[in-house]
Amino acid sequence: MPLDDPDRRRLIAALRRMQLVGDGETPALAELTGGVSSLIVRADTAAGPLCVKQALAVLKVAAHWEAPVARNRAEVAWMRIAARVAPGSVPAILGEDAHDNAFAMEWLEPARYPVWKVQLRDGLADASTARAVGANLVAIHAATAGDAAVAQAFAHDAGFYAIRLEPYFVETARKHPECAAALHRLVETTA
What is the secondary structure of 14-31 as a DSSP string? Predict the structure, then answer.
C-alpha cells in the first residue's frame, strides 16, 4: 500500500534518528497489511530490508478509538525479554525512536516466516508450529512470572483497557445490551 507523504517523511526521519539510514538515503517504504493500531512498513534500505512499526494514537477502524502510543516502548521491552529467554522467538530490535513512537526490527521474509494467524484461518494447523509457539510461551512465562520488576515494567493497565478491552468488550456491550452484563463482568475480571 502506498504511504502518504507525511507518514513517509516521519518514518524516514525516525529511521535517520535510529541511524539506520544516512542523511542522503531515501529508502523505499511499503505499508504492510494487518495492523489497526500501528503503521507497519517494510523499508528497503542500503543495508537491506527491515520492518518499521509506529504506534498510532487513533486506531484504523470505523469508530474513533484512541490509544496511548507509549505501548510501542512496552512492545520493544517485551520483545527484548522474549529474545533473551527464547532466542529466535521474535525479530531482532534494530532501533527505537521515542520522538515518533516507532521502532525498527529485522525483516522476516514471509516465505520463510508465514503469518500463523493466516495459516490457521486457511485451515493449515501444523502441530509442530503449535508446539514451538507453546514452548516459547512456557519459557517466557516461566522466566517472568512472579518477577516484581517485570510486573512493574509492564503495568500498563490504561493502555490495555484502551486497546483491548474497550474497543472489543465495552463497545460490544454498548451495541448489544442483552450481552452487556456478561461482557462487563469479563472486563472487570480481566482488567
Answer: HHHHTTSS-TT---EEEE
- Cell numbers found for residue 62: 470505523
Within a 10 A sphere around the Cβ of 59, how many other Cβ atoms? 18
Region for residue 97 given its phi and psi (left: phi exceeds 0; alpha: psi -120 to 50; beta: otherwise)? beta
Average pLDDT, the chain: 93
How far apart CA 1 and CA 82 sit, in angstroms, is 30
Q: Which domains does the chain have, with CATH numbers?
A: 5-114 (3.30.200.20)
Q: What pLDDT was estimated at residue 36?
A: 85
The answer to whether 37 touches 163, Cβ cutoff 8 Å, is yes
Contact assessment for residue 40 and residue 8, using Cβ atoms and an 8 Å cutoff: no
Residue 179 has pLDDT above 70, yes or no: yes
CA distance 145 to 139: 10
Q: Cell numbers for 178, please give them.
A: 442483552
Please name the residue ranges forming H helices in 22-179. Answer: 71-85, 116-121, 127-144, 148-153, 157-160, 171-175
How confident is the model at residue 1, as a pLDDT?
61
